[in-house]
C-alpha cells in the first residue's frame, strides 16, 4: 500500500460572528489534513461584527474528508461556508439584450482562458447577438419578454438555469427587471452591470442623466441583483474621465469600456470565490 | 516717435448663441490690434446651442482699445464676455471651519506660485485654523455662526468680501450653508468642495453614507455654489479606490487627498478663466 | 438657378512655423467659403516653435474649392496640411500574430461603429486568428515570416498595402520588426502597441522585466513606428495598478486590457486626424 | 490575585522559506497567548520561494512573553521577524533640500494624525525650509553638503540619526546621493521619492526627460535607498495624465502632487510594518 500523492488545490471560504480562535481552528484543521496554505485572507468587520476568511490550500485529502472536518467547526463557530476546487470553471448563464460589448468581452475572456467560467448558454430577449454566441459555439436561447409574457419568460429562464446547471447568472446588459421572487431564489448568484457609478443615476438612461448633471467622471457598477433595483451589494466599480465636449453618444461609447471591464472583474472574483456577502455590502478578497 | 513695444498677454473669454462667423470676427478684431494668439479654444454645445471661446493673445493694445473693439462684437453676437491679463492672481477669500487640509493646501500652492490666486483673507467660524493663516501672513477673521446669528454672520461676510475686494470666495470645507440671496448675488464666484462624488451622497456625512452603501470608489466634487444645495454646476471631480477594509475614518483620511486636489484644480481653472457657465453645466477649457 | 444647399463636414489639419495671423487667415479663408466652424483647436509649441491647428468646418464648398483656397495659405505660412471629410472611415490594414485581444477589440469596435476605420484586411504571420477575421467578414492574408523570408514577406506586405489602398497600418501585437525602409516609406502611417509603459522595458518580454523590477503599475504605449525600435512618437499611454501577488501571467492578462484600450484610442485619434507630428513628439487634439 | 485584563494590539511581521505548517504554528502560538487575530495577511512568492506574513493581534501577553514564544518558531522556520505595538508612531528623520512640497505634506499629515510617524527632526542642506520646520515645532539641522564636505556631512547625518533615535529616514526631495556605506548600514530604513515613473527617466532632470520623450503620463516612485542609484526596491508608484500643452514647468507642478501622495503612502505603509523585503522587490500588505 502506497500513500496517495495526488494533491488538490482547494478554496475554502467562510464567514461567522467574529471572535478569538477562528484562524487557529481553521489552520489546525487544515494542518491535520496535510494541507499547505498557499493563499489566505481574513477580515473582521468592526461594523457588522462578522469575520470573513478565504483560504487556498493544497492537500491530498478528499472532499469528503474535508467536508467532515469543516462541518463541526462550522457548527462551533456558526459559519456559513463553501468548499470548491481552485480553478474549476463556474457554470455560467449569460443574459443579454441588444448591446454586444459585455457578451463579446466575456466570451472572448473565457476562450482566452482569462476568466474561470464555463458559459453554458446565452439567453437573449432579442435575436441580435445570436451570431456572436454561435461564433463561440454557445447555445443561444431566444426568450422574448413583453409585459404580458413576463411570467412565462421567467419560467423559461428558471428552466434554463436548472437545465444547464448554471451556478451563476450574469446580466450582461440584459435591460430587463427580474421579479422579487427570482432575485430571492438566486440571491448572491445573479450579477448585474449597471451603466452608472451607483448610487448616482439609478434607473433608466444613466448616461443621459450624467450628461444633464454635467459630471466630469462617469462610471459603471457591478452588483448582486436584489429585489430592490440598483440597490444590491456592490462588487466592483470603475470610472472614466469625461468633459464638456462629450455628447450622450460619446458617454455611451466610453462607458462600454468601463462596463465590460467592471463586469469582467466582478465575474472573475465571484468565480474565484473572492466575494463574500457582509449584509448589503461585500468583502472582496482580491 | 517710436512704436510702443511693450506687450501684454490677455485672456478673452466669451459665450454667445452659436452661429457662423464668430471665430473669424474675433480673430479679425484681434489681428487688427496686432494680437498674436498663443492659445485658443472653442466649443459649440449642440444641446444648449451656445458657443464658448477662450483666447489668450499677446498684444501691445491697451485695455481701453481692446474693450472698445470687443464691445460692438459682443453686441452683434449677443456675447457675455470677460477680458483679463494672463497670470494676474485673483483676489480670493477662503472660508473655513475646523478641517485644515484644504486651507493648508491652497495656501501652500499660492506661496509656491503654483496657483494664480492672491488670498486676501481667511474667514473661520471657529478659531482652530488661525495659526495656519498666521504662518502664511494672512489676516484671519473669526465669524462665528449660530442659528440665531446667521444673518449677522452673512452680513459680516459680505462686508469682508467688499472690504477685501475679493473676486472669488472659496468654501474650503466651510460646512455652513449660505443663504439663497448670498448665492444669487455671487453666482459663479463662490466655489465649494463637496466630499462626495456628486450626485451620490448629497447632504451631511457623505463618507458615512458611502461606507453604508459599500461603494468601491469614493470621490470629491468641486462646484459653483447655488441656492440649490449640492446641485451647483460641477467644475471638477476626482476619485480614489477604497475597499471593505476601510473604516469611515479611513474614508475621511483618504478623501482629504481627493478633496484638496479636486478643489485646487477647480480654483486654478477658475482663476485662469478656463471655466465658463453653460446653464447648470460648465465648459472647462483645460 | 438655385443655391447649392448640401453641406459637408470637413476636417482641416495643419502645422507650420508659429507666428501672428495664422488663425485669422485660416478663419477668414473658411468664412469666405461659407464655412461654419464647429470645432477648432490650436497649439503653439514653445519648444519647437511650431504651430498646430485642427479645425472642423461645415461648408457647401467643394473639395476643389477648398484645396484651391488652402494652397496659397499653405505656401504663405509654409504649412504641412491635410483635408478630409469628417467621419470617413479610414482604410486600415491590421497586422497580427497569435495574440487575439487587440484584433478582437478593433474589429468589434469597427462593427459597433465606435471606431471610424474600414478594416480592409488582416495579415497574420500565423494562421491562429483566421477564424476571427472570417467572423467579421475580413479577408485574411497569411504572410509567414522567417529570418530568410523576411524581405519577401515585406514585399508581400507592401503589395497588400497598395492593393487594399490602406491608409493606415496597425500592428495589433504583430511581434515582427519592420525594416527601416518600410518604416520610412510609411512614416506616420503605422501604429504599434507596445506592452509596456515606454520608455520603461523596451524590447522583448516587458511584463517579465516589469515583474523583475517589482513595479507597482504596468502600462501600454501606442506609438508611430520608426526605424528606431520602441522610440517612435508616442500617441497614447495607459496604466493599471498591480501588486506583489501578481505573477508574470497575471501581468500579461491584466496588460491585455490596457493594451487594447490604449491602441483603440490611438487608432481613433489618428483616424479622426487628431494626431499631429511635432518632431518626435505628438500633438493630440482630443 | 486578579487576572491582567489590559490588552495590547501587536503587529508581528515575518518572512521565511515557504513550506507547510507556518500559519498553523504562528496561529497556535498566538492562541496560546490569548491572542485575538484582528488582521492577518500571508503571501507565498512562487518566484523567490519565500513566505511572508503580517498579523495584527490583540493580547494581554507581555512583550517578553511574546518574544520568548516567537524565538523558537523563528529558529524552526528560519524566520526574519519583527514585533511592534500597533499605532506606535515611528521615529522619523526628514531630509530636505529646497523643494517644500513633500516636507509640508508629511508634517501636515503627522499633525493631523493621519500618518503614524513622530518626526524627530528635519535636516536641510539649505536653510530654505527652516520656517516650515519651526511652524511645526520641529528642530531644524542645517547640514550643508559640498563635494569636499560630503564625508563630514554624512558623519553629521549619522550622528543625528543616532542622537534622535530615528528608526526611519525619509529623503523628502533631498537631492543628495548617499554613500554606499550609508545605504548598506541603513538598508530598508531609508525611503526616497524619485520624481519619475521608474525605471523610466533615472538620474537627473526626469521631468525634462519625460517632456523630451513626449510621454502622456508622468509618475513618481517611492523606494528604499540602496547603493545602486534609483534601483532600490519599489514601495509605491503613482501617475498623472499629461498632454502636449504641458511645459516642463507644468510637469514639475503636476508632479509635486504625485510625489507627495506617493511618498506619504510609502511612509505610512512602512511605519505600519506593511512593507516586507522580498529580494529587490517588496511585498506590501495594504
Overall 3D form of chain A: globular
Structural class of chain A: alpha/beta
**Which protein chains are joined by the largest interface, and how many residues does each one contribute?**
A-B, 34 and 34 residues
CA radius of gyration of chain A: 21 Å
Largest sheet of chain A: 7 strands, mixed
Compute the average pLDDT of chain A: 94
Beta-strand portion of chain A reads 25-35%
Count up the helices of chain A. 8
Strand order of the largest sheet of chain A: 7-6-5-8-9-10-11
**Oligomeric form:** homotetramer
Helix and strand element order of chain A: EHEEHEEHEHEHEHEHEEHEE
- Strand tally of chain A: 13
User: Low-confidence runs of chain A (pLDDT<50, min 5 residues)?
Assistant: none
Function (chains A, B, C, D): Catalyzes the hydrolysis of 10-formyltetrahydrofolate (formyl-FH4) to formate and tetrahydrofolate (FH4).
Enzyme class (chains A, B, C, D): hydrolase
InterPro entries (chains A, B, C, D): ACT-like_dom_sf, ACT_dom, Formyl-FH4-Hydrolase_C, Formyl_transf_N, Formyl_transf_N_sf, PurU, PurU_ACT
Keywords (chains A, B, C, D): Hydrolase, One-carbon metabolism, Purine biosynthesis
Amino acid at each position: 500500500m502506497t500513500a496517495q500523492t495526488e494533491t488538490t488545490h482547494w478554496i475554502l471560504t467562510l464567514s461567522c460572528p467574529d471572535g478569538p480562535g477562528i484562524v487557529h481552528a481553521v489552520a489546525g484543521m487544515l494542518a491535520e489534513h496535510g494541507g499547505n496554505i498557499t493563499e489566505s485572507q481574513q477580515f473582521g468587520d468592526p461594523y457588522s461584527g462578522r469575520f470573513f476568511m478565504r483560504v487556498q490550500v493544497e492537500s491530498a485529502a478528499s472532499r469528503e474528508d474535508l467536508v467532515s472536518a469543516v462541518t463541526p467547526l462550522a457548527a462551533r463557530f456558526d459559519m456559513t461556508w463553501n468548499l470548491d476546487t481552485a480553478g474549476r470553471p463556474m457554470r455560467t448563464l449569460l443574459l443579454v439584450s441588444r448591446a454586444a460589448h459585455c457578451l463579446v468581452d466575456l466570451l472572448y475572456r473565457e476562450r482566452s482562458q482569462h476568466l474561470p467560467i464555463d458559459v453554458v448558454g446565452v439567453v437573449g430577449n432579442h435575436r441580435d447577438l445570436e451570431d456572436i454566441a454561435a461564433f463561440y459555439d454557445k447555445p443561444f436561447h431566444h426568450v422574448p419578454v413583453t409585459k404580458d409574457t413576463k411570467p412565462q419568460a421567467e419560467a423559461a429562464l428558471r428552466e434554463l438555469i436548472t437545465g444547464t446547471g448554471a451556478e451563476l447568472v450574469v446580466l450582461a446588459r440584459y435591460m430587463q427587471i427580474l421579479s422579487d421572487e427570482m432575485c430571492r431564489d438566486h440571491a448572491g448568484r445573479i450579477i448585474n452591470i449597471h451603466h452608472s457609478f451607483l448610487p448616482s443615476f439609478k434607473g433608466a438612461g444613466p448616461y443621459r442623466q450624467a450628461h444633464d448633471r454635467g459630471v466630469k467622471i462617469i462610471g459603471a457598477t457591478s452588483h448582486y441583483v436584489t429585489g430592490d433595483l440598483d440597490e444590491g451589494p456592490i462588487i466592483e466599480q470603475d470610472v472614466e474621465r469625461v468633459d464638456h465636449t462629450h455628447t450622450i453618444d460619446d458617454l455611451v461609447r466610453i462607458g462600454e469600456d468601463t462596463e465590460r471591464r467592471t463586469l469582467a472583474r466582478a465575474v472573475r472574483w465571484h468565480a474565484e470565490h473572492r466575494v463574500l456577502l457582509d449584509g448589503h455590502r461585500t468583502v472582496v478578497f482580491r
